[in-house]
Amino acid sequence: MKKHLAAAVAFAALGCGTAAMAQTDFSAELKARQGQFRIMAINLGILGGMAQGKTEYNAEAAQAAADTLVAISMVQQTPMWPAGSDNMSIDGTRAQPTIWEQNDDFLSKWGDFGTAAKAIQAAAAGGVEGLGPVMGQVGGTCSACHDTHRAPAN
Amino acid sequence: MRRGLVLGALGIAAIAAAGFGVTSATPIDSSPLAGLAGDPAKGEIVFIASGCASCHAAPDTEGDAKLVLAGGQRFASDFGTFIAPNISSDPEAGIGAWSLEDFASAVKKGVSPDGQHYYPAFPYTAYSLMSDQDVVDLWAFWQTLPADATPSQPHEVGFPFNIRRSVGVWKLLYMTDDWVMAEAATPEIELGRYLVEALAHCGECHTPRDALGGLDRSAWLAGAPNPTGRGTIPSLTPEDLTWGPIEIAYYLETGFTPDFDSAGGHMVAVVENFAKLPASDREAVAAYLKALP
User: Fold this and answer.
1) CATH of domain A27-149
2) Distances from the Cα of B33 to the Cα of B38, B96, B100, B197, angstroms
């Protein structure tokens, strides 16, 4: 009986421990925010492939990709970036502490991406010639944020 | 490593003291410049391709504010921290009082108007290959740039690297008028060579350095530790950089890699510049990189 109790206590302690871990490793937030960047990359790839002439231009596919970028730009960011989920605090992220230290700047750069995404949305169905300049614009907004707020890959 | 550096530099200082004449800073021979007329519009292209504003604009400036070359950005290295000086057209704080010869000596030889060596954080080892016409055009464009009265800050460089004479020996070791790619097979590759090796000074970050901070040209563009101490600057040799020419040119235009990640770090400034250049320039850089051994 005592043995069972001890085991139960140990089990409970283990359970608590796991629960506490789940609260502080931010795995859900990391998956969510990194996933949204993946969705962006996949759809930028569709548009960029057409702009580079690697794939044939298709107005409908271009529009769907651009609409998706706008949709992502409307996802609210703050809940995915909890304090303590920077690259100095945890593994598995390249998010610099500047995201929290200069949060207004971070959110304003995210807003710039939204503006550029709308420009792509407006241009996407109008022919491949229009894609080049707006892709440059959206690329500039990606880089502007990465320059400050994302750590180098290795 | 660090001890090696210090010993090496002490050695250099000793040689410098011995060879006083050899290490003195002599200005450029200005005769080839005589008779060349500067075109500011062409000079602006040289200015963008050479990335002048990327280092000499005040920290964290964007857009047209980047044309105010007030200096102040910090560049960490194994030898100390260099702080980009004011090179705006202000006659006191900047270089507004310089002559064309002063400017050409600084850009192509790393020599100041008062006969001092500049530290090679200023990439004159690359700019030495800049054509005379481009120097003259660049200076013509400079006359259109705004003045700023912010004083330059002294570099944070300790002994023995603060002995400017030693830079004279360094120049004897590392300054060359030869292209790394001796033969350019096509006019496009030749243009790419000029952009990569001279104006855009890509080798400054993408080529590893030896103990004295000179570029190891035998490992040209083969990648190097990031001078900020964090991460690595990637190799651009055909063996390592598997991107095709279209993808390289597209990266320089938009900042997008082939898998649509985007540029970060100092490459953001490089892409910002290349995006403003003609598409043929970006294609030439790609052709040059693909022609590397």
Assistant:
1) 1.20.120.10
2) 10, 19, 8, 22
Spatial contact of B50 and B201, defined as CB atoms under 8 Å apart: yes
Best mutation target among A38, A69, A138, A143 (most B Cβ atoms within 10 Å) is: A143
Domains observed in chain B: 28-158 (1.10.760.10), 187-290 (1.10.760)
All structural domains of chain A with their residue ranges:
27-149
Measure in Å the smallest separation between the Cα of A143 and chain B Cα atoms.
6
Taking each continuous run of H as one helix and of E as one strand, the counts in chain B are 12, 4
DSSP-H helix ranges across chain B: 2-18, 40-50, 52-56, 100-109, 124-127, 132-142, 164-174, 187-193, 203-206, 245-254, 267-275, 279-290
Q: Two tokens at B229?
A: 């101490």
Mutate to test the interface with B, among A113, A129, A146 (most CBs of B within 10 A): A146
Is residue A128 classed exposed, middle or buried when 0-12, 13-18 and 19+ CB atoms within 10 A define those classes?
Answer: middle
pLDDT at A65 over 80: yes
Determine the distance in angstroms separating the CA of A6 from the nearest CA of chain B, rounded to an integer.
48
For residue B268, give the nearest of A40, A147, A153 by CB distance.
A147
Residues 6+ positions from B188 with CB-CB distance below 8 Å: B280, B283, B284, B287
* A15–chain B Cβ distance below 8 A for any pair: no
CB contact under 8 A, A41 and B247: no
Pairwise CB contact (< 8 Å): A139 & B256: yes
* pLDDT band, residue B227 (cuts 50/70/90): confident
What ipTM was assigned to the predicted interfaces of this complex? 0.78
pLDDT at position B248 over 50: yes
Contact residues, B window 209-228, toward A, CB-based 8 Å cutoff: 226
Return the pLDDT at B12: 53
What long-range pairs does B89-95 form, CB within 8 A, spacing at least 24?
B89/B142, B89/B143, B89/B145, B89/B146, B89/B147, B90/B147, B90/B148, B90/B149, B91/B147, B92/B149, B93/B147, B93/B148, B93/B149, B93/B150, B93/B151, B93/B152, B94/B69, B94/B147, B94/B148, B95/B142
DSSP string computed for B67-79: G------EEEETT
